[in-house]
Amino acid sequence: MPMLTGSAPPETRWPAPSGPADLFSQDQLESHAARIAGTHVVAADPWRGRPLLPRLDESASRLDEAYTFLSAAARLDPQPSEDWLRDNHHVVQDQVRGVRLHLPGAYYRELPKLADGPLQGFPRVYLLARELTAHTAGRIDLDTVVDFVRAYQRTSVLSIGETWAVPIMLRLALVEQLRLLADGVLAARQNRD
Description:
The chain has 193 residues and is mainly alpha-helical. Helices cover 63% and strands 0% of the residues.
């Protein structure tokens, strides 16, 4: 059986990824969006922020490692719960490349950053994406996104740059959620072996 090597060390500089959270109905999502909009304080200087791409790189690396491990393990003992991760690895890689391409440094620096809280220094729109993906288990469609953003903006208006960044941040948040799922699948595989 293959061994999983190079497991990611516990992260100290990043807030925990959005893991499983209470699943919300559409009405609950909209109420949640309005509630968090009222708590967000934007930093006066958006240029002073924390970079997101290293987090994306860590998640992508972990997903690559999971793919390699699960591909080798499948030759000996295929498991249906692992199929999606193996079969869609190329799709995930494309999304990671898309985030890198569509989030250049100059654009990122202009995004309003949170002034306080565990995600201080990260773009406000990133927290929006994390919250939406966490409370829908990553099952989102266009109407859900639009309604969530509109509900948020009833309390706190996003900049045009933030609005344009919503799809990018959703991809990033979904990659993080997928990383958590991959970690769970890997743990189950290792416990089984």
